[in-house]
Specification:
Number of strands: 16
Number of domains: 2
Shape: globular
CATH superfamily of the largest domain: Translation initiation factor eif-2b, domain 2
Order of helices and strands: EEEHHHHHEHEHEHEEEHEEHEEEEEH
Largest sheet: 7 strands, mixed
Number of helices: 11
CATH architecture of the largest domain: 3-Layer(aba) Sandwich
CATH topology of the largest domain: Rossmann fold
Distance between the termini: 28 Å
Length: about 350
C-alpha cells in the first residue's frame, strides 16, 4: 500500500484517486480548475482529513494557475481560494492546508507548491510516527494477543497522503504480528468501510470481516473486540473529537465493555481554537445518500433522508488520542495541548 497516493500533483494539475469508484474501478480525476477541486471535495472523490489538508494546499496552486489563464484580479483569486477552503466545514485540515500556503501566494505558484509538498511529506512522516506511538500504547494497555480490532470509516492511505492514521496503527500492529482480525464497519451511507477500508486491508493481506454499522455495539459487548481505533476530522481543545457518523456509538459501546477506544490523527487535526465539540459544525449532506444505495432507491418515494456526515465523541469516552507528538488521555487542556507540540513525549 506504500504505492497508493490519493493526492498527487502532476502536469500542472491536482490528480486524485476517484474514491467514489473504488473498489471495483481504479480511476483518477484531474483537477485543473477550482470547480474541479470543489466538486471533488464535495462528491468525496477525495476525503479524509489529512488528505484534505494536502488538497487545500495544492488547490491554492490550481486557483493561481487558473487565475493566470483567465486574468483574475486579486479579489477574484482570494474568493476562489476561499471557495476551496470552505468546501467542507467539519474537517479542520482542509482550511488548515489552505491557510498554511496562503502566505506564499505572493511568492508565486512554485512557492505554494513547495509548501503543499511539505504538507504531504510531513503528513506521511506524522502518520508513520503516530502509528508507532499508537501501537506501543495499545500493546501496553491490552492483554490479549493477537488483537481483535474494530475500526470505523476509512483512515488508511486513501484518507491521507500515505500510510494512514487509525489504519496506519493497524498496519503497524500487523507488521509486528499482533493482529488476529479486524472488524471493519461498513460505514453507511456511503460505505467507506466496505468499499475502501476492506480494499486497503485486502491489499495488505490483513485478516478482516465487514460488518454492518448496527452490529458494532453488539460485537464489542459480546467481547469479540479488544480495542477500537478510529480517526478524527477535528479534535477540540477539551478533547472532544468529530469523526464519521457512527463513531460515537462505537465509543459508547467500548465504554460499556471496558475496552480501549483510541482516536488517531495528525496534530494538524487538533483545533485549539475550538473549545469543545459543541462548537464543531456538523456537515449535513444530501438526504438522498441515505434513501438510496448506489443510485438505487431503497426508501418510499418522497421519503426524506437525514444525513449528518459526522458526530462528536465526548472526551470522557475516549481512552487515548494519538498524534505524532504524544499519546494522551483527553482529560485536561494541558494534555490536549501536548498533541501539537514537538517536544511532547
Amino acid at each position: 500500500m506504500d504505492d497508493i497516493r490519493a493526492v498527487q500533483w502532476s502536469n500542472q494539475a491536482l490528480v486524485l484517486i476517484d474514491q467514489t469508484e473504488l473498489p471495483t474501478t481504479e480511476t483518477y480525476v484531474t483537477c485543473s480548475q477550482v470547480d474541479d477541486v470543489v466538486d471533488a471535495i464535495i462528491r468525496l472523490v477525495v476525503r479524509g482529513a489529512p488528505a484534505l489538508g494536502a488538497v487545500g494546499g495544492y488547490g491554492v496552486a490550481v486557483a493561481m494557475l487558473q487565475g493566470e489563464r483567465e486574468n483574475w484580479d486579486a479579489a477574484r483569486l482570494e474568493s476562489e481560494i476561499t471557495r476551496i477552503r470552505d468546501a467542507r466545514p467539519t474537517a479542520v485540515n482542509l482550511a488548515w492546508g489552505v491557510d498554511r500556503v496562503r502566505p506564499m501566494v505572493a511568492g508565486g505558484v512554485d512557492a505554494v507548491l513547495a509548501e503543499a509538498d511539505r504538507i504531504a511529506e510531513e503528513d506521511e512522516a506524522a502518520n508513520r510516527e503516530l502509528s508507532r506511538r499508537g501501537a506501543d500504547w495499545i500493546l501496553a494497555n491490552t492483554t490479549t494477543r493477537p488483537l481483535r480490532i474494530l475500526t470505523h470509516c476509512n483512515t488508511g492511505s486513501l484518507a491521507t497522503t500515505a500510510w494512514g492514521t487509525a489504519l496506519g496503527i493497524i498496519r503497524e500492529l500487523h507488521l509486528r504480528g499482533d493482529v488476529e482480525e479486524v472488524y471493519a464497519d461498513e460505514t453507511r451511507p456511503l460505505l467507506q468501510g466496505s468499499r475502501l477500508t476492506s480494499w486497503e486491508l485486502t491489499q495488505d493481506q490483513i485478516p478482516h470481516v465487514i460488518q454492518s454499522d448496527g452490529a458494532a455495539a453488539s460485537t464489542i459487548l459480546r467481547s469479540l473486540v479488544d480495542v477500537a481505533i478510529i480517526g478524527a476530522d477535528r479534535i477540540a481543545r477539551n478533547g472532544d473529537t468529530a469523526n464519521k457518523i457512527g463513531s460515537v456509538s462505537v465509543a459508547l459501546a467500548c465504554h460499556a465493555a471496558g475496552i480501549p477506544f483510541v482516536v488517531a490523527a495528525p496534530s494538524s487535526t487538533v483545533d485549539l481554537s475550538t473549545a469543545s465539540g459543541d462548537e464543531i459544525e456538523i456537515e449535513l449532506r444530501d438526504g438522498s445518500e441515505v434513501t438510496s444505495i448506489g443510485g438505487v432507491q431503497v426508501a418510499p418515494a418522497g421519503a426524506q433522508g437525514f444525513n449528518p456526515a459526522f458526530d462528536v465523541t465526548p472526551a470522557r469516552f475516549i481512552s487515548a488520542i494519538v498524534t505524532e507528538h504524544a499519546v494522551v488521555h483527553p482529560s485536561a487542556e494541558s494534555t490536549v495541548d501536548a498533541l501539537v507540540h514537538q517536544e511532547a513525549q
